Amino acid sequence: MENTFVVNIIHRPELSPEYAEKVNGRGKKSGVGAKSLNDESLEIFKTQQRLAHENGLKTTIQITYASLFSDDIIRIAKEDHEKYGDEIAVSLLGLPCKEFKEKYKTKDFCIWMFSLEDKKRIIDDVFGMFFEKFGFYPESTGSYFLDAACLNYIHEKYPTVKCAIATCWEEGPKAYHTCNNSWYTFLDGGPWATWIPSKVNSNCPAVDQKDDCGIVCIPHLSRDLIACFDGNGSNFGTHPQNVIRGMIYNKDGDLPYLYNLVDEYRNLAKYNNGLSYNMMFVGPGWMNKAGRWEAPYELLYKSYKNGMEYYGKLKKEGKLIDMTMSEWATYYRAHKTYKEPECALWKDILYGSSKEYFWYLDPYLRTCLDFNQGGAMIDLRPYVAKLDWKVGIGTDHIYDASYPYLIQANYRAGYFTHYAGAGTVKSCKVTYGTEEVDLCLERCRATYSKDGLDTIVTSDIVDIDFSDFTLKVQSIFRFKYGTGEILITRNIMNDIGDKKVTFDEYFTGAFGTTEYQSDMSKIKLQIENKIESKNVDFAYKCRIVSLKDAKVVRAIIPDVNTIIEMSGDNDLGEFEEGHAFSPSYRLSLKKTLSKGGLTTCLKLKKED
User: What does pTM read for this prediction?
Assistant: First the structure.
């Protein structure tokens, strides 16, 4: 397939912008009333539309609840649909206008946080008003997050909807902390690119047609897959004002990082059968006349203008196809299969280092390998569990819509802790006599390839220096198509004579959605070989259990309906129970070699 780069330009007119009430501190003292703010928002929306159209780009207009009360917005949307082919859609953001607050008697405005009954009422209200204004139901919708309950209801009641904005990638504790612990939007653990959600959990890609929620979903922003994971994602997206908020511009107000970020998304076609995607979703609050993020309006305007010009330039050069959301949903279904993975070998485009992450997701798992740490696994989410994680008032998760992790090196520490290797991470230690080196200490780069339907990621050869010789090791990660299995091989790449080294392939895990660990006492640790098996109910007693020639070592975690198994050729298998001061568990397979290598299989399964 020839490389295809698709962009969605999405504009959200808001005539009751949240920023006007809270962020700028503008009110009666400045002589700016509600009408003036609404007029300004309307002008910003018109400016955004103009800049897109001047560069030959069509948009998707996601009209908010508040904007449905505006004759001007309705008229402009109809005109731009006729003239430019823009799609008229409806947004489930922008709820908190005067009419909404009076009708629902609430200050809440995030659709996924309402009770199931209220979610349905609000969806019917918004979609009903849209139909009254336009005479048809929309083909796309969206919010910062849409849970499975919302998506399933929309598909059942409004089957015209093909596409929805349904997550805001990695907006969890990091975003919460940068909002001074005040913004309770916990949305970690979902896809960074387009996916078709499961009917059970909107974070998980559907495994087949039966599991398909019926709607193609996209993230709220296309974000930097290193900078966003390591730091505050709100500063690193293809939304130009995110880049302004991160102060990533030069003295002339130019945004080379933004263009690099767009190009990095174009580059993802290499890893996804020639198809890559990017989106930009902007409301008017980011370009208001009072300025934002210590930046004047002139810089905000310039950033948006330059962003549209760059997309327009790519289109003129035949390097980009602009689509509406519903067009993209149709195209995506025609070119992707359910079990086809989404991959991203992501380079550091912000600081210019040699750091690389490899991101992978399919209906069974999402994970990230850090090749600045020798290919260590620093994030792992068990999509295979298809957790029925209900969200909103009246559920066990009122605001926390994140999909739980088994490994998360930022929230639950990775290799670099007070007790090295005690944090959640999947890596390998190499031992020679009394000397021990963890591959987390070995920086390298990676190469992507395919073998049939399997995805292969191969590390550079790294040098491990022991006291009297150097060991050369290469790591190979094979993601087995449609299985939830990762085969990990550590190969000795040089002649070390009769010296013997021991490879310890280990998995240090936990579970949760934040920095805080829940009670681990339901976890069961098991190990077995051909002759016997041993198991332990987790009780924070630091017990270590070993078996020679282990067939499998596993952790069963009922809280997230997941079984983690490690298997493969080995001399010794082992599990280690954690302790309360640093709660985690450890699975391990060890083999002593003088040549060849060690291959282990990491498999995630659903715990019934």
Answer: 0.96
